[in-house]
Amino acid sequence: MKRLAIGITAAMLVASIAAFASGGWAVVSVAKVPDAWIAGKPLQLTWQVRQHGVTRIDGLRPTLEARSGSHRVEGRTWAFNEDGQRGYRGTITFPEPGEWQVTVHSGFGRSRAVLLPWRVVDSITPVRGTVEAHLETAGLPVFSEAERGRRLFAALGCVTCHVHREVGIKGEVSGYAPELTDRRFEAEYLARFLANPSIKPPTDGKRMPNLGLRDKDIAPLIAFINASSGRRVTTR
Ligand code: HEC
User: What's the first-to-final CA gap in the chain, in angstroms?
Assistant: First the structure.
């Protein structure tokens, strides 16, 4: 039994090295993550899987899970193809409020997206006023632009290639790209670069892939990357 276990472990190791050597890694980008996660209400997520951040991979069988302490729940996933848009979607329902961490397993090797832990709240109490006032009164999270960016940095898969100390999720090929913790950029340049990284000539033959970021994602990413160093971006 023990020998079998060692055999299996060795085989898995060989398989994962082979997968890595053949370039078997992918960037899993979860987009349009809502701020407010509510217990008992299905949360829908949409994601793309791109080998090396470049080539979209179809036909995968992803799984979606969320953990809070010893609690674990699974979601439902499917592939979509609408009006020329392809990708994957899933829904997951949190049985109770608390800090929940969601992982999207892409179905392609070990490639996955790990979201930062999120506070799942009870329910919305309808109130009048702005959306923020509404959420705040209901005790729902209202993220600053920089905090939203920090969460997107994990969700969109920037952590696959880049290390950032404020995010603290280790990606599949972290170190492939420069660490960004202490880097600051001119905002206008960064907006252009993130929308189209090919404006920068490759460094050491490496180039940042175009992850199809939306302007809505780019603004919070810039706020996060350029947030003053050493200051933890607060949740509220
Ligand atoms: C597939 C790996 C990969 C992923 C995923 C990735 N990057 Fe990069 N990124 C790179 C590489 C490689 C470079 C270095 C490019 C260069 O210097 O020409 C880079 C450079 C950068 C730079 C520095 C630009 C400069 O002018 O020096 C920033 C900022 C950046 N990435 C932000 C992001 C953000 C934000 C995300 C997520 C939305 C992200 N990256 C996802 C590979 C990646």
Answer: 52
Tokens found for residue 20: 């890595």
% of the chain at pLDDT higher than 90: 72
In angstroms, the Cα distances linking 201 to 9, 69, 108, 164 are 42, 45, 30, 23
CA–CA gap between residue 134 and residue 8 (Å, rounded): 53
pLDDT score of 17 more than 80? no
The two most distant CA atoms of the chain are separated, in Å, by 65
Per residue in 115-162, pLDDT tens? 999 999 887 655 556 666 666 666 677 899 999 999 999 999 999 999
Residue 193: count other Cβ atoms within 10 Å of its Cβ: 17
Give the per-residue pLDDT at 142: 81
Q: Which amino acid is at 12?
A: M
Ligand 1 atom having least distance to the Cα of 27 = 5
Q: How confident is the model at residue 15 (pLDDT cuts 50, 70, 90)?
A: very low
| Angle at 92 (CA atoms; ends 60, 81), nearest 5 degrees | 40
217 CA from centroid of ligand 1 (Å) = 15
Residue 157 tokens, joined = 């898969």
What residues does ligand 1 touch, defined as CB less than 6 Å away? 27, 52-53, 156-158, 160-162, 176-178, 180, 185, 190, 193-194, 200, 202-203, 206-209, 211, 213, 221, 225
How far, in Å, CA of 52 to CA of 34, rounded? Answer: 26
pLDDT at 9: 52
- Chain position carrying tokens 């920068």: 200
